[in-house]
Amino acid sequence: MIFEIIKSEGIAHKSYFIGSKGEAAVIDPRRDCDSYVDYSKKHDMEITHIFETHCNEDYVIGSRELSKRVNAGIYHGKNLNFAYGNPVSEGEKFNIGSVELEILETPGHTDESISIVLTDKEVSDDVYMIFTGDALFAGEVGRTDLYGDDKVYEMAGKLYDSIHQKILPLGNHVLVYPAHGSGSVCGADIRESEFTTIGYEKKTNHAIQMNKEEFIKFKLNEKMVKAPYFDKMVEYNKNGAPILCRIPYPHPLSLNKFKKHMKDTQVVDVRMAASYAGGHIQGTLNIWKYGLTYFAGWMLNYEDPITIIDENNEYMDQILRYLIRLGYDNIFGYLAGGFTSWYTKGEEIETVDIWSVHELKERQNDDSIFILDVREFGEWEEGYIEGAYHIYVGDLQYCLNEVPKDKYVVVYCDTGNRASIAASILKNNGYKKVVNVLGSIRAWKAAGYPLVK
């Protein structure tokens, strides 16, 4: 049996390539699907089956894209009316060479969620692996709030039953491969681990050690952010995203062409916080490169074209892949020569003030500043800087009336990158006095300064 893990950084997504005796299956493929085709060529295998564990809400799934290239069947849970592919039910089995894949219906994260049990019949009749989608992670379980607060009780009960009645009874030895790793928004606190086992999760996973009543109460009290782009992902993944066939080609834009079209596009500066603060083009939004995989979905719309500003455009292919995984296909181009080509031509630049945590500590009680914490609610609850006001960065553009314009707005997050997104939003909305605290909470703790809980 051939087994490969394909990871997509940023969204912490994991997909899987399984092959045996000339045939292969892919589970939860991403949209830029070259890697699966490359593995099939490398191992002289034909991809015959593509499985989706559920209708993903945090990225565009690549099943139709891959199927177009390899002519494989697509299979997903029957409890959602997908516009493509084939519905599967509990107990259905598929043979990939000597490998048997059996479907378990494991609702809770979503109604149509399935897990896929793998047995390598050439070795043993015992179950070897299970692909749990977003039902069970390393150290965590899936979120149950995607259908709204009024459905959490029902979905939490379903998820508990799926885990305890379907997954755990398979045996402690079974390897568990979820659809996401640490950093995903699909679970509150997923552990950093390539894989796990049912036995290890029984011993270490706080959520599955609860009884059903405790589990449901825990899920009812769980607070997780729901990005606005989730609805677009569900639409694409239910009805089928547009077929790309290739990664879009972004045009290198001369300085004059960039200036001509700047007002007609969403201009994103993908440099790090310190670089953006030191100098940037007025009116641009800062989302650092690795933050695109999530925060683009909060900040960018799907109608207007996107233009990129980077330092030297060295990672443009990676940036494009990050965007198309979220369904952003309308990429107009990028500033040729990067930001350097802007300031070396004598164009105007704007800056964001930078403070160290020591400067913030000195002025913490100054009435002329407004301290803004833009982390998630769970991070805020774990400890915040005294005197801070909390607005999650994803909500900031809708809550500007809560931020005064007559004070220095001093923004912090965990390290300064999300604070830079917030700073760019504030600057673009007429705030003149904006400060980014570089290092933010991480540096604050390192300096030994206290937090309030």
UniProtKB/TrEMBL annotation:
Q: What SMART domains does the database record attribute to this sequence?
A: Lactamase_B, RHOD
Q: Which GO terms describe its molecular function?
A: hydrolase activity; metal ion binding; sulfur dioxygenase activity
Q: Does the keyword Hydrolase apply?
A: yes
Checking PROSITE patterns in the record gives: RHODANESE_3
Gene3D superfamilies xrefs: Rhodanese-like domain (3.40.250.10), Ribonuclease Z/Hydroxyacylglutathione hydrolase-like (3.60.15.10)
Q: Where are the transmembrane segments?
A: none
Keyword presence, Disulfide bond: no
One BP term from GO: glutathione metabolic process
Recorded hits in InterPro entries, A to Z, give: Metallo-B-lactamas (IPR001279), Mito_Persulfide_Diox (IPR051682), POD-like_MBL-fold (IPR044528), Rhodanese-like_dom (IPR001763), Rhodanese-like_dom_sf (IPR036873), RibonucZ/Hydroxyglut_hydro (IPR036866)
List residues of the Rhodanese domain. Answer: 261-351, 365-453
Q: Which UniProt keywords apply?
A: Hydrolase, Metal-binding
Q: What CDD domains does this protein's entry cite?
A: POD-like_MBL-fold, RHOD
Output this protein's name.
MBL fold metallo-hydrolase
